[in-house]
Amino acid sequence: MSLSSRLVPLADAQRRLAALVCPLAPLEVPLAEAAGLVLAEDVAATEAVPPFACSAMDGYGIAATGEPAPLTLKVVRRILAGDAPGEEIGPGEAVRIMTGAPLPPGADAVCMIEDSDAARDGTVVVLGHSPAPGEHVRHAGEDVAADEVVLERSTVLRARHLGVLASVGRSAVLAHRRPIVGVLSTGSELVAAPAPLAPGQIRDSNRHALLALVAAAGANALDLGLVRDDEDLAVAAVRAGAERCDLLVTSGGVSVGDKDVVKAIIDRCCRDAEVLQVAIKPAKPLAFGRFAGGGVLIGLPGNPVSSMVSFELFVRPTIAALGGETSPPATARAIAAEALSRSADGKLHLVHVQVEVDGEGRLVARRSGGRASHLLASTVAANALALVADGAGVPAGAMVPVLPLTGAAWPASVRPFPVEQGERVGHEVEDGLEGLDGTCC
Ligand code: AMP
Ligand code: MG
Q1: For residue 13, what are the CA distances in angstroms to 104, 277, 330?
Q2: Which domains does the chain have, with CATH numbers?
């Protein structure tokens, strides 16, 4: 175990943790279970989409001749969506055809029903418009050509990707499964509701917040309960939990206090372990290591605000990396609605803020409440962390990078992750954040 009292820049701490994390082995996953997973193969179409030339309108399919309208044609049959195209049509003939129905051989254009006048018995139609070749026709392979690569590995599968996969005939894909993430609280003072509080006891709030964050980050959350500050009990709880998860997250007991149990956990359960003091505020203490079975342990600080900040900086990128994601969470930039003042202390400060859209459509950030790491209720209104670099802080009106909180609600008109700019987290912050880019194993 490496134990350092020196302050480690955030980016270094993230890199060292990232070095322990490998993407989980890909599995064949049915499409119905693949939303949110990361694709582990390049997907080439084996079928063209559409598979045949078909009508884009309800109307009449004809062979375009260039003759001026009106055109009087014999209607030889009707073709509905799902029908076979049938026989070739000849000169002077038309088919009544519905949207999505295959064009028969000989037809290469469609006149909309709105531009036609059919005889009462439907056997003859007068077209008021003479369509050009290809008009209102969807060509075979126009959307996707057979053999075309439609999706590349590392794509995070959203609804539109699943639609594309289904359209080319896939019922399952190779994808990284959702990590299983266990959450264990440590602390002899902790009690879960509804048990009454005895003198000196407090509620275990971290576990519930962290379990919800894990789920919001796209992993399967596993509640491992709470354990007293007893090294043997804590080690036993971690050993049992490690067998059931890919990542085990503890909170509490990672600082320098008496009875802080995480060092014992790390010593007795982990390899490649580190206990660090990260140059951030809040959430300075951090521990991580790897279990013999391959899983990862991250020990978060116990203070409730610290544990949630540490989740955003360390656990969320680890969940993403385990799930095969290659791009780190992105920041947006907002105008500080009020000064985010601080004093220089060698640390990056992470301030809970509420980001909103102002009357001119700009993102503005304002502090959500008090600053101390035990003031959990002060985070209720927050939807982002402002990254306030070391120094005197950010004056009112200046731009500040903001990291959207996992699962937080953003104003409906805002895209918290700018796709085009794709800024790396903490891009412009000295000693700022870096995603876990998975240089490992
Ligand atoms: P620790 O990191 O164990 O020294 O804890 C720091 C502070 O966080 C102490 O005031 C603890 O009582 C508090 N704390 C630790 N774990 C939790 C938890 N699960 N829920 C709420 N507060 C906690
Ligand atoms: Mg404790």
Answers
A1: 65, 9, 18
A2: 1-25+177-441 (3.40.980.10), 28-49+142-176 (3.90.105.10), 54-138 (2.170.190.11)
> What is the pLDDT, as a whole number, of residue 412?
59
Of 202, 229, 249, the residue with max ligand 1 atoms within 8 A of its CB, to mutate for a pocket test, comes to: 202
Looking at the CA of residue 186, tell me the nearest atom of ligand 1: 16
In angstroms, the CA 194 to CA 155 distance is: 43
Residue burial 42-66, b: 16+ Cβ < 10 Å; e: rest: ebebeebbbeebbbbbbbbbbbbee
| Lookup: tokens for 426 | 């903490």
Ligand 1 pocket mutation, candidates 184, 259, 303, 307, criterion most atoms within 8 A of CB: 303
- The answer, yes or no, to whether any atom of ligand 1 lies below 6 A from the CB of 225, is no
CB of 299 within 6 A of ligand 1: the answer is no
Give the separation between CA 140 and CA 233, rounded to whole angstroms. Answer: 65
CA angle 52, 56, 57 (to 5 degrees): 135
- If you average pLDDT over residues 300-313, what whole number do you get? 97
Amino acid 364 reads V
Q: What are the tens digits of pLDDT across the range 195-233?
A: 999 999 999 999 999 999 999 999 999 999 999 999 999
Q: What is the pLDDT of residue 159?
A: 97
Q: Is the CB of 310 under 6 A from ligand 1?
A: no
Q: Is 253 in the pocket of ligand 1 (CB under 6 A)?
A: yes
Closest ligand 1 atom to residue 301 Cα is: 2
